[in-house]
Design goal:
Elements lengths: L2 H24 L2 H7 L16 E5 L14 E5 H7 L8 H6 L1
Antiparallel strand pairs: 1-2
Length: about 100
């Protein structure tokens, strides 16, 4: 295995671990409270607590972690539009703020 393949393998493994952490956090009282308003962190729209998804402000693919300070509730539409961008890279987010 060459160095590039090894780095890629390590990154994939790390992302898997972070996704597992996020799944565990989704089952906590902290996350339920965070979603209780039913509002998207990005657009502010009310979609209801059950329709909110967990979004990483700094995406896992960009080195983000599944820690409370990096997780926000987002509607599916905003989460899909944001993809792996940082909030300041996402033009729609900047315009709406």
């Amino acid at each position: 295995m060459d160095l590039l393949s090894y780095k890629s393998y390590c990154a994939e493994d790390e992302i898997k671990r972070e996704k597992q952490k996020a799944r565990r956090l989704r089952a906590t009282r902290w996350w339920r409270k965070k979603c209780s308003s039913g509002r998207c962190h990005y657009c502010g729209r009310f979609v209801g607590p059950s329709k909110l998804t967990m979004d990483h402000l700094v995406p896992l693919a960009r080195g983000g972690r599944s820690i409370k300070a990096n997780l926000v509730p987002a509607c599916k539409e905003c989460n899909n539009k944001k993809k792996a961008k940082l909030p300041f890279e996402w033009d729609e987010y900047i315009v709406e703020q």
